[in-house]
Amino acid sequence: MSRVINRLSITLERDSLVKQVTHDLHQKLGVDRVLLYYFYCQWKGRVTFEVLSDPKFSIFGSTGPDECFNDDYAEMYLAGRVRAIADIEAEPIADCHRDFLRDLKVRANLVVPVLTPNGLWGLLVAHHCQSTYPWSEADIVAMQQGAETLAMAPSVRGPRHS
User: Fold this and answer.
1) What is the pTM of this model?
2) Residue 73 dihedral angles phi and psi, to the nearest 5°
3) Which of 44, 114, 116, 136 has its CA 20 to 30 A from that of 37?
């Protein structure tokens, strides 16, 4: 029983932190959507948290473009890749990626990895849906700080390795 209570406590702590980080980033960036894409197993994940400017932008529970997010992309994010796209229509990206973003009504995209000692835990993502969005260095730094805050939290990092 105490293990169940402990696990529940850790989950609530993690969820509260993710909600706070995504909310703060949404306020700071002024974009349509800030979300956490959580990897529940290797390179398979889903949107588990989102903060929206309007409920019509919800993609809660969405899964990623599995055919696009392959080992090559995973390796780049594992290496700390940050991807800022001001206009998906003007950026040279794979057709499957552009189509995926169009389906989500994304016009501008900023993605930062959440890296823990166990690997790629998730992606912190900001979307602007209504127009292009020229991501500033301050926007990128804010997202990186949000990802770092999540990555350093004991409830995200998991058990310590010896």
Assistant:
1) 0.90
2) -65, -40
3) 136
